[in-house]
Specification:
By secondary structure, this protein is of the alpha+beta class. The chain has 15 helices and 17 strands. Helix 8 runs antiparallel to helix 10 and helix 14 runs antiparallel to helix 15.
Length: 536
């Protein structure tokens, strides 16, 4: 997910004496205990009345309730709970599990649509009888209002531009037409993201611009009861939801910063779901009879960004030398305990068009020394690596990198900062090097690069700028022939790898813990939890 603006109050919330052995280290195989993952539709259990599902998040209780401003996975879950979109992602049953398919689009607020022969005009017909929480109908006016609103927002505005939307208009109360400046093969997939949620104009109009930050105006499966960004958010089931009422009455999201506390609360039954379980604890927690640990491969990448506007990273040979000092085998073993895979490109191996061509950075200390000598840094140099204190693995990565770089005379100073400061520094591109992670909500290189490595990308924190890459990205964004798109993005990957704005670290799993009585969890590759299917 995209790291950006944060409304966050750091608060000490709970102090506990931890039970011995709660976080014993382990080194399990990838995907530990996946076969027992709680599944939607896995049985015919009837949920008891008055149920509450409590979920513990690690990085705050969300930044915002506004779907057009959301930029973190917690806020994204809120958007999907409170709002609907014109279309949505499908699901499939695979190996007895229900899994989300963000690459398959199914109707939602729009019951059907047509696409013109030139693939530049989309006409959506809204379904009858859908109402917002206010009781007002979801109609074409609401869709037009929502798209006008989101254009001016930071995160949604970026995706709006990436979508190639030229104009949109109401045809009648049930029909909306979108015209694209150029064909976009990802348009429907973009519309299925929380960014393009439809809001109720009657609730929003006349209110201050930030009203939806702490309030809601949706048609979704839940309504907002209360929210404190420092501690928790509470959602109440919409019993008249047009897709059918959720199986639980409430969902409570709690902010529990420390992983050890999340694990302890899960074991005691104080919470039902714990997110961001440390990889080192998967093995020991999987042995607990009352728990189920899910570790699923995602398209999340973890990388070290190097900003060429700062010395010595303006020197290509220096950036290449850093890449030769990345010991991915050691990272996978000592940092993520097998709950990840190697990263060999600037996009995930699960992304269409992925290629490892051009990736030659095998761990090689002598090669790194040779490149540094050629660059004029034979004796090494000193630099600061900025990391967020909210991401537990970052410090472990930084310590390992520090030890490797010392072998060639490079001194790495770890600059550990609070999440808000990290986002401010990286967004302003004011640090020479940083650790970053990114999950593409739409699993396609066009989306991924549009944010991360296009010179004007909203999340291009390494300030990467290659006009040839920009030109290829613009071409790929409107190319509808799949073979041609693949060729374009393979060329992009090779050029970026050669330019080395990043050092590739690994592709990480989504690890979540559940009490064994929790049912209905559906894993989506965008890592966003959909509350509506959960029950116990």
């Amino acid at each position: 997910m995209k790291p950006n603006k944060l409304i966050m109050i750091i608060s000490a919330i709970l102090i506990l004496v931890l039970a011995a052995g709660c976080t014993n280290s382990a080194n399990p195989k990838p995907g530990a205990n996946n076969s027992e993952q709680p599944q939607a539709g896995a049985n015919n259990d009837t949920p008891a009345a008055g149920q509450t599902i409590t979920i513990a998040y690690s990085q705050g209780a969300g930044q915002t309730m506004d779907p057009h401003e959301a930029a973190d996975l917690t806020s994204a879950s809120y958007a999907f709970a409170l709002y609907d979109q014109l279309v949505t992602s499908g699901t499939e049953t695979k190996d007895g599990k229900t899994v989300g398919r963000t690459d398959q689009i199914v109707p939602s607020l729009a019951e059907k649509w047509t696409i013109s022969d030139d693939k530049k005009t989309y006409t959506f017909v809204l379904r009858d009888g859908v109402k917002f929480h206010s009781g007002n109908p979801v109609n074409a006016d609401a869709v037009v209002f929502s798209f006008k609103r989101l254009q001016s927002k930071g995160e949604s505005g970026s995706l709006y531009k990436l979508s190639n939307i030229e104009s949109f208009k109401k045809i009648d109360d049930k029909t909306v037409e979108f015209k694209l400046a150029a064909p976009n093969p990802l348009f429907l997939k973009y519309l299925a993201t929380f960014t393009f949620s439809v809001v109720d104009p009657s609730v929003v109009e006349g209110k201050p611009d930030g009203y939806l930050t702490q309030n809601s105006a949706g048609s979704g499966a839940f309504t907002l009861e209360k929210w404190d960004p420092a501690t928790e958010a509470v959602f109440v089931a919409n019993k008249s939801y047009w897709k059918g009422a959720p199986k639980v009455d409430k969902v409570v999201v709690k902010y529990v910063k420390e992983a050890s506390n999340r694990e302890l609360f899960l074991e005691k039954g104080d919470i039902d779901v714990a997110l961001d379980i440390p990889a080192k604890d998967v093995g020991s927690l999987s042995k607990k009879d009352n728990l189920v640990i899910s570790s699923e491969s995602t398209n999340r990448i973890v990388y070290m960004g190097m900003n060429a506007n700062f010395k010595p990273f303006d020197n290509l040979k220096v950036r290449q030398a850093i890449n030769y000092l990345i010991n991915q085998d050691k990272l996978l073993q000592d940092v993520v305990y097998g709950q990840a895979s190697k990263m060999t490109s600037s996009i995930s191996s699960k992304s269409p068009a992925h290629t490892s061509e051009g990736y030659e950075y095998k761990y090689d200390v002598e090669k790194a020394k040779s490149l540094l000598k050629e660059a004029g840094y034979e004796k090494g140099f000193t630099f600061d690596l900025t990391i967020s204190s909210a991401t537990q693995d970052y410090e472990d990565i930084a310590v390992l990198l520090k030890a490797e770089l010392e072998k060639v005379g490079i001194t790495l100073n770890i600059n550990k900062v609070a999440p808000a400061q990290y986002r401010e520094l990286t967004t302003k591109k004011s640090v020479p090097a940083f650790l970053g992670k990114y999950t593409s909500l739409v699993n396609d290189p066009s989306y991924h690069y549009g944010f991360l490595l296009d010179s004007k990308g909203a999340s291009n924190y390494a300030a990467y700028n290659n006009p040839e890459v920009d030109s290829l990205l613009a071409k790929g964004n409107s190319e509808t022939d799949e073979a041609k798109r693949t060729a374009i993005y393979k060329e992009v990957q090779k050029k970026i790898t050669a330019d080395s704005p990043w050092a590739y670290l690994y592709e990480s799993n989504l690890i979540a813990g559940f009490n064994k009585n929790v049912k209905g969890y559906v894993f989506y590759p965008d890592e966003i939890i959909r509350f509506a299917s959960l029950y116990k």
